[in-house]
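Pilot study result, target chain (333 residues):
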Amino acid sequence: MDKKNVSMNDVAVAAGVSLKTVSRVINEPDSVRESTRDKVHSAMEALGFRANFAARSLKLGRYGCIGVVLFHLSGGNVDMIDGIADAAEERGFALTMIKKRAGEKMTLAEAARRMSQLPVDGMIFNLRQMVDDFDTFEAPKDLKTVIITPMEHPTCSTVSDDQEDGARMACEYFLNHGHKNVYFVSGKKESLSSQCRMKGWRAALEARGIEPPEPLQGDWNADSGYAAGLVLADKPDCTAVLAANDCMANGVMMALRDKGLSVPDDVSVIGFDDELYKTIPNSILTSVKFRHRELGIRALNEVVAGLEAPSSRSRTLVSGVLVERSSVKDLRA
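Predicted structure:
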């Protein structure tokens, strides 16, 4: 038999079930007994049958698939994708992914065009930096779009870690432990995460009537943190450093050590993302940890909610937690 011409009726005959049962296995699998599903799936595999997504869409009004656009699969993105995948499985959806190269530009409109050509019901766009059409983009009416970004969008639902609040929390921790000011080592200038973390740091200091010192520019890598640490080691008033991620925080600590200073006795340090303990044993670094898996779950559920209520729009912020270790000294008398 030509596998290209295998029909649902052929599957029904091979499995010894009705055509309606085959349709239910494809479109409503939970309504069919497991033993019957297994027979139908075995027949499909033996015959080389693949469901017609277009026909399925006409029957159910959806494809049962969500598109995901992202730029890299490392760090917190791995946990985020894990959350998206688990939530999709629980809600009965599959995933289609488009991965762009780091530094490669893509507008929201372009992502929507790409996804509109695929059998997907909605799209999750993991936005790492600002795109040219962020404020003007309007998602196609038949493609529910959720953007993972700390920025609020005028028409699309957004989900994000609460980056600003995480920075405020870390900064206030320093101040509540007797530190008079906090220096900041930023990530790349174009990074939305770095911008929001810097904004939270400034807000926390200004709320206490403290003039924020000039931030030091980093690039997320440990070497840039090391370079910043060498500068900070020569500042007599520097007792506290907030680095925009753990890699740079570790670089800062290594530079301070090489300059003969101790963490936390001479300078206290806090990082972001709580990643250092995975590669460095007995890490002392206090860090702001974000719940990336929860972020992925929220994003997927928001897409599905939008399929059921297309006009809905929301902004969801997932709070972080401060993981306390021993890199901050209490200066209170």
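One observation from the pilot: The domain at 163-290 is CATH 3.40.50.2300 (Rossmann fold). A full batch analysis is planned for the follow-on phase.
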